[in-house]
Amino acid sequence: MNGPEIHCRFAPELHLFVPAERRAGRTAVVTDGSSTLGHVVESLGVPLTEVGRLLVDGHEVPVSHIPRAGESVEVRAVERPQQVPGAPLRFLLDVHLGTLARRLRLLGVDAAYESEDIGDPALATRSATEQRVLLSRDRGLLRRREIWAGAYVYSHRPEEQLRDVLERFAPALAPWTRCTACNAPLREADKDAVRELLEHGTRSAYDAFAQCTACERVYWRGAHHARLEVIVEDAMAEFGGAATGRQ
């Protein structure tokens, strides 16, 4: 770039994405005179999925704004809870976020997940086709123009990832109502109807069951339930009301 010089200040939440020398106050940026402000921000490392308001000399501008020499730009982070207009709130997670996908499903959140690496173009296309918020730690993927909406997942730790998504998007929670394996809704199942799918010990010890409406996986309050209950109770205490349904 060899054109107008502007000065940028990034919100603390965005410091993760920019070089260390751009994290302290205003820093000079030389533009090419034709690229949009959105392009300039992305070229500095910040995915637009993470950008909230853009202020130029104190006035809000769109990402299509062409910077002019001497302008002072403030790049703010997305406001939380983030509103995603235009479709029911639902998610698509890439191959690296399987545990997060299962925990979102446990809470009744619609979370599609690709267990195999289908490639960035296919993920972006699915996001657009199904109008799903694409969750990823891949900044390059989140910069693809064809995605419908996206969000960077800031932590490596599943429990922190879950809190981040719930805080950012505030989805409606309905624990124990969605299959953690395939994401489809669950229905109550009569014990006799699923008897042939159960081990003998399970048939003897449990009477209440649910079954996936798509893959037909059967759920019951087994030894794993106490661990899952902690996840549900913690999420509902902070982000929802009383848990409903069962697994």
TrEMBL record:
| Annotated ranges, domain Mut7-C RNAse | 90-230
Question: Where is each Ubiquitin Mut7-C domain found?
Answer: 4-82
Under the heading PANTHER family, the entry gives: MUT7-C DOMAIN-CONTAINING PROTEIN (PTHR39081), MUT7-C RNASE DOMAIN-CONTAINING PROTEIN (PTHR39081:SF1)
Output this protein's name. Mut7-C ubiquitin/RNAse domain-containing protein
Q: Whose protein is this, by species? A: Streptomyces melanogenes
Higher taxonomy: Bacteria, Bacillati, Actinomycetota, Actinomycetes, Kitasatosporales
